[in-house]
C-alpha cells in the first residue's frame, strides 16, 4: 500500500490500535523534549513514579521560558532541573542556550523518529521528517518511563506546495495563509503534511516556521519530508550521519487535499487577538505601532534575523518605536554577531534580549497599554504579551522590520530597496549547547528549593454529586486565559498551591476566591463554547483548577492537548449533544450528576439535570476505556500507583 510520510512514521512506531481515523493508537516515543515552564512538574512526576532513568533514545530538558531571575524561584528551579536531568539521564540545555524547539532541531532531531514534548510547539520539529507532537507533561513523563503515547488516529491533510515564494514574502506568510483559510480549529484531529515540488524551495528553517504554527491550527502534528534540504541542514550542524531520506510514495493519498501556489502569496498579518484573524498587510497599513518584535520559536532561523538586519542597515527605526530582537539560540547569535547583523540592528536603534522565549510567553517586552505590537511570535491570545488589554499582530520578519522603520504597519513591498539576498553560513558552532547526562552509576541528589512542592493528592470522582457552574465562557478560550504565563505566574510552576491563585484571572478576578469557597463542599464545574483549551500544552491549566475543586468541564468541544490534560488529572470532560443547550444554563446554576461511575462506563451519551429546572441537558463523552479508568481513579498518578500495587 502506498503511504504518505505521516503514515510511514506512524506505522513504524505503532504499538497498539489500528490506523483508522478516530481510533486510539499507541505510539513508541524515541525522543522527548521538556522546557522549564513544564519540566519541573515532569521531573516531580518521574520522582513520584519511582523512575531511575529514562528509557527513551534521547530526552532533553531546556531552560528557555523562565529566564528572568528577579528572585530565587527561577534560579532554584534551574538548579533542580539540572540535578533532575543528571539523575534521570537527560540532556540539559542551560539558560541562555535558546528556545527548546530550534535548539532540539539543531542538536538532537533525527528524520524518521518520534518526538513528544511538553510544549505545544514541539510540532516544529516535524520540519525534520519527524512525527513531533506536543502533549501535557505527565504524558511526556510516561513516555520517558518507556510507556507508549496514546492519541486518536488523526486524519492526514495533504497540502501540495507548488511554485516559489516571491520577494518580500516568507515562510511565515505560508502558515498565515493556512490560518486564513482554516482558522484556529482547522487542524484539529489532523496531521498536516506538506509535499509537492514547492517543498524543495523551502529551507529546513522555513519548514520549522510553518510546522511550528501548526499548533495554532490545532493540528496533532505537522510533517515535512526528509530530503536534500534536511541533509544540508544536518551537515551545517555537523550531524550529516543522522540523515535518512523519508518521502511519500508516488501516488500516496491523503484524507483531505489542499493546495498552495507559493508564487501567489502576499505579506499577511494576524490581527488581534487570534492567530486565525488573518488579512493581507495591505489592508491594515498605516496603523501606528509602539513595538516591533522579531524572534521566538515561530521565526527562529538565521535568515529571519539577517533579513531584518539588512532591511534596517544604515537606517534608524522610527521615533517612539521599540524594535525588540529576541535571538532564539546561542549558536544563532554567534553567527549573527560574526556576520555583522547584530551590529546593523543595534546601530538602527533596536533592543537586544537574551536567547530564549522571552516576550512570546509574556516574560518581558510587554507592550504599552492601548498600543499596537507587531510580533513574529506564534500567538496573540488576549493578555499573553503580559499586558492585559494588549493589541498584538502576528507577521513576518520582513513586515516587522519595515514597520519599525516607519512607526506604522507597512507592507514591505513598498520599501524603496531591493529585496536583500541572505547567504546562510556553511557551518554552525555546536560546542557546549547540551550537557550530557550523568553516568548511570553516578549518585545524584535532587536539589529542591523552598518554592518546589509535591503534587497534591486528588480523590477519585464520586458517583453522585451536585456542582455549581462558577464560569460560563465563550468560544476559543485559551490556556493563557485559563492560567496565564508570564513573569508573575510561571515562577510558581512547581508550587501548585500558589500558582492556582492566578487561575482564570483574565476571565474572572473572583474565580479563585469563589472556587476556594466551594472546594471543600464538593467542588464546582465550568462551561464554555467551542475549542476550549486551545494553545499551550502546560498542564497547570488543568492542574491548578483541579486543585481548586474543578470536577467537570462541559463545553461544545475541546482542544486536543487540554482535553488529555483534564483526563490526566481526573476532571470529567463532557460536551453538549445539542449545542443549543449551552444557552439553557447560566453561571451559578447547579447541575445534578447521578450514577456516574456506571453511566460513563456503559454510555457515551447521558442526561444531567439543572436543579430546580425541568429542562434536561443531554451530554456525551468520547473517552476510551483507559481514559475512564484514569478518571475513576482520580487521575493518572493514582492510576499508575494502583497498577503498581
What does it look like?
With 645 residues, this protein is α/β, with parallel strands linked by helices. The chain contains 20 helices and 26 strands. The strands form six sheets. Strands 20-21-22-23-26-25-24 form a seven-stranded mixed beta barrel, surrounded by four helices. Helix 7 links the parallel strand 10 and strand 11. The chain is globular. Residues 8-285, 286-407 form the Aconitase/3-isopropylmalate dehydratase large subunit alpha/beta/alpha domain. It is an enzyme of class 4 (lyase). Residues 510-578 form the Aconitase A/isopropylmalate dehydratase small subunit swivel domain. This is aconitate hydratase. Keywords: Iron, Iron-sulfur, Lyase, Metal-binding.
Task: Give me the side-by-side strand order of the main sheet.
Answer: 20-21-22-23-26-25-24
Over the alpha carbons, how many angstroms does the gyration radius reach? 24 Å
The end-to-end span amounts to 44 Å
Q: Give the low-pLDDT segments.
A: none
Our estimate of the beta-strand percent is: 15-25%
**Percent helix range:** 25-40%
Helix tally equals: 20
The largest sheet is: 7 strands, mixed, barrel
Assign an overall shape.
globular
Q: What integer is the average pLDDT?
A: 94
Structural class, by secondary structure, is alpha/beta
Please report the total strand number as a whole number.
26
Give the SSE layout:
Blueprint: H1 5-13, E1 14-16, E2 24-27, E3 31-35, H2 36-49, E4 58-62, H3 72-88, E5 91-93, H4 100-107, E6 114-117, E7 131-134, H5 137-144, E8 149-152, E9 155-162, H6 171-182, E10 190-195, H7 204-212, E11 221-223, H8 228-236, E12 256-261, E13 268-270, E14 278-280, E15 291-295, H9 302-312, E16 322-326, H10 330-338, H11 341-347, E17 351-352, E18 372-375, E19 391-394, H12 397-406, E20 465-472, H13 479-482, H14 496-499, H15 511-519, E21 524-528, H16 540-547, E22 550-555, H17 560-568, E23 572-576, E24 590-593, H18 596-602, E25 605-610, E26 616-620, H19 625-633, H20 636-644
Parallel strand pairs: 3-4, 3-6, 4-5, 6-7, 9-10, 9-12, 10-11, 15-16, 15-18, 16-17, 18-19, 20-21, 21-22, 22-23
Antiparallel strand pairs: 1-2, 2-8, 13-14, 20-24, 23-26, 24-25, 25-26
